[in-house]
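Hi R.,

Here's the chain you asked about this morning:
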Amino acid sequence: MRIAYLVPGPLSRGPLGPAELDRRQAFLAEHAFPGTAVEVRETDAGPASIESSVEEHLAVPGIIQTMPGLEAEGFDAVIIGCFGDPGLPAARELVDIPVIGPAQAGALMCVQLGERFGILTVVNEVVPSLRRLMRGYGLDALLADVRAVDVPVLELRDRREEVLATLTAEGQRAAAAGADALVLGCMTMGFLDVAAELTDRLGVPVVNPVLAALKAAESAAALGVAQSKTAYPPPRKGEAAARPV
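And the predicted structure, written out as tokens:
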């Protein structure tokens, strides 16, 4: 089984450099089931990080232009490597292999583990968009709280201990607001590998969206199912719809 993890922007050309792609691939490989090969890819264009609705929209063209090529290469599933699930419906329209959005996968895991859930994310500016996203998934009635550590995505690794402390404090506030399961609302947070420690600290399950998306991708591919073409019909213009004019 081959899974593509698609970073929606040229991450390797940013301050974290190409080594960040290797680090993420190693993390995914460590947690994949035996027989699963995970390859981290990135789009040629897009923001270095996504912390607003504007940046989410800027990421979408690269995603939809890359998606058909991944299917043609023989990947069995694709993970969109951003918690905002940018371009997810469009990507699903373009291919016949399962396309997984980490926010959807992580939130659905949470609602299997508790009655109401919360999201712990990066900066305050993304809180409204995450609420809108959950509303679109029909999960707003189960969403107890969305809280942010107010640390930019590209600074999370260098400020790991500070971020972990703030996640603990914000997680306690989310739990007090009624969340009995939590999901980390950023893929870079997921790659910090702090979910297990937060689970111990907070006393409620904390879902790593990287792993929730990976396991959802593996499960869909193993079951031989993909998104419904009734829900995500292919564009009449075919792959031409994904190419810029």
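The beta strands are 2-7, 37-42, 77-80, 99-100, 117-121, 143-148, 181-185, 206-207.

Let me know if you need anything else.
M.
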